Amino acid sequence: MLCSCSIRVPVPTEVKRVAVSVDQPHLKGGRAEAKKDPDVLVWLLADELHTGMVFPYEWLIESGFQPPKGFRKSKYVTLSWGNREAYVQEAWLTPWQAIRALCAPSPSVLELIPFDYEVVDVCPYQRVWRKLVSRDHGPAVAAFLNGCARHDANGLPWSIGKSSWGKGVLLDSPHSYYLPRICNVWTLQAMEACGCTIHPWGGLTAGGVIRQAEKPENGFEKVWDAYRIESPEGAVAH
Questions:
Q1: What are the CA-CA distances from residue 71 to residues 8, 25, 66, 197, 214 (Å)?
Q2: In this predicted model, what pLDDT tens digit does every residue of 113-153 receive, in sequence order?
Q3: What is the dihedral of CA 62, 66, 69, 74, to 10 degrees?
Q4: Contacts (Cβ under 8 Å, ≥6 apart) of 219
Q5: What's the pLDDT score for residue 181?
Q6: Residue 148 dihedral angles phi and psi, to the nearest 5°
């Protein structure tokens, strides 16, 4: 048993040294540059009303995404967009607030949250879908996200406060929130930047976004069903 678990030492052989030019395109500073996968995994998050996306942070940065000043490096970032009042008060809008937000243009924000653990571990109360996206779609995704944030004279996004959860930020957006330009339509637009075929009017609800994501031509697969939350009264809700 002990012998079978041991590491076998290779038999010494003559080593022939070969000079390698550092001018070769796959080398940098005399060290081999790791070849990156042609595809990356992206995720769709959804609760009963709201949707958002998760992207590998390194992919966004190498594709041209501009983060706010001081934003920490992370493995993933989750992004969503919506009515500023709803994000700042960290609660669902009241019926009157919702009617006002849908019927009249109102300020909006882009929420950007970094994390380093697996998506389903960080967002266990969300339903989660994933999809392989060609790395070549990165510039389109980065351009879309950059366009969803207002920038200062130095080209940096304006941060207006802390995210509704996690250690992220709210970025001021130049776009107004109103029907039909609402949070779930934003998610469809992010999916479109990833190469998906979308129909904006079919994505006014979270269910509409999910139905489009699961279409064969878009290829999102469900990998996690949300944990159920017990309300104080004992009723079960997602």
A1: 46, 32, 10, 32, 33
A2: 999 999 999 999 999 999 999 999 999 999 999 999 999 99
A3: -40
A4: 131, 132
A5: 87
A6: -90, 0
* CA distance readout (Å), 147 to 98, 144, 169, 190, 209: 25, 5, 16, 11, 21
Q: Which are the contacts of 83, defined by CB distance < 8 A and separation ≥ 6?
A: 93, 101, 106, 107, 108, 177, 183
In the structure encoding, which two tokens stand for residue 1, read together?
């048993």
Crossing angle for the helix pair 183-193 and 138-146, to the nearest 10 degrees: 150
* pLDDT score recorded for residue 96: 74
| Mean pLDDT (whole number) for 72-84 | 95
Whether residue 208 is predicted with pLDDT greater than 90 in this model: the reply is yes
Q: From CA 206, how far away is CA 181, in angstroms rounded?
A: 14
Q: Is the pLDDT of residue 198 over 80?
A: yes
C-alpha–C-alpha distance, residues 187 and 207, integer Å: 12
Determine contact, residues 227/237, Cβ cutoff 8 Å. Answer: no
Q: pLDDT value at position 16?
A: 40
Q: Is the pLDDT of residue 25 over 60?
A: no
Nearest Cα residue to 184 out of 169, 198, 197, 171: 198
